[in-house]
Amino acid sequence: MNIFLYELKAYRKSTFIWTGALIVLVILFMSMFPSISKEINEFKKLLEGFPEGVRKALGIQVDTIGSLNGYYSYIFLYITLCGAIQAMNLGISISSKEIREKTADFLLTKPVTRTKILSSKILAALTSLLFTNIVYVIAAITVANAVKVENFSLYVFLLISLTLLFTQLIMFAVGIIIAVVFPKVKSVISLSLGVVFAFFLIGMVAAAEEATRYLSPFKYFDYSYIMNHEGYEWSFLLLGMFLIVLSLIGSFVIYNKKDIHTV
């Protein structure tokens, strides 16, 4: 429990910063909706001028962008990008922190198993991510109700918002196994940005082909599908869960067996 509380305290500042950044983004983007809805026909004509491939890459659905949920699904891609960086940063920091700060020998000489150490770190990071999502969803709903010009489906709004947590969990798990395999990370934020933007760019390219959507977690959730069916695509949801479980199991196995270099 002491490791959990220590890690939770260590993540506190960054958690508040990332949570604040997500709230600022949703306020900034959603504050534009009333103005756009008034000029929606001109806005749609502007979007229709973009090539179809560009619209798919950017997640633009011309038919639904005039509704609050349709507009929210468009801007949510960039909110998810910010949240993915937070999650990847947490995942990579978990096991690489002791190596960078040269405190691994101090931690591993304590009467606790490696499984306990890694479990406590993961639980603390997950608590931080859960806090971020709870606060964000409350703020997003408040902002949506403040800027709405007509009634919207709160259920669909929540389904779209929850994809942030799912995407973060995938990125977090991938970040953990990256840090376990390559513990000597000089700059966590640089590596986090590189990996997340690589997935993001792959997702933009993959938007044109259904089969290639499996290559990027950013494309596991099709917002137009969510709005039309009020649910997720099970194939991608199960794939995401599989990646999370596989990455976590692999991280524990590698972390328990590998040599930890100390000072």
What does this structure look like?
With 263 residues, this protein is mostly helical. It has one domain (2-257). 77% of the residues lie in helices and 0% in strands. The protein contains 11 helices and no strands. Helix 1 runs antiparallel to helix 5 (68-101), helix 1 (2-30) runs parallel beside helix 7 (114-147) and helix 8 packs parallel to helix 11. The radius of gyration is 20 Å and the shape is globular. The two termini are 26 Å apart.
Question: What's the quick description here?
Answer:
The chain has eleven helices and no strands. The chain is mainly α and 263 residues long.
Largest sheet: none
Number of strands: 0
Count of domain modules: 1
In terms of quaternary structure, the protein is: single chain
- The whole-angstrom Rg is 20 Å
How many helices? The count is 11
Low-confidence spans: pLDDT under 50, at least 5 residues?
A: none
Kindly estimate the percentage of residues that lie in beta strands according to DSSP.
under 5%
Mean pLDDT: 84
